Amino acid sequence: MGDITEMIMEGILCDVCGGLAITENEQEPGHPQTCEDCEED
Ligand SMILES: [Zn+2]
């Protein structure tokens, strides 16, 4: 797949909206995650 998919799988991009899911000071979590905007409980 493309770079976008890879960045989502690494947790860099949100797996819901595709926006940035980490700040520049954070490390790649290595797994898919959602950004603050999409995170709801
Ligand atoms: Zn999002």
Compose a concise summary of this entry:
This protein is mainly alpha-helical.
Could you walk me through the main structural features you see in this protein, from its secondary elements to its overall organization?
It is a single chain. The chain is mainly alpha-helical and 41 residues long. It has 1 helix and no strands. It has one helix at residues 3-9. The longest helix is centred in the first third of the chain and has 7 residues, at 3-9. It is globular, with a radius of gyration of 9 Å. The structure holds zinc ion. Zinc ion (ZN) is lined by residues 14, 16-17, 19, 34-35, 37-38.
Instruction: Please count the helical segments.
Output: 1
Radius of gyration: 9 Å
Order of helices and strands: H
Low-confidence stretches: none
Count of strand segments: 0
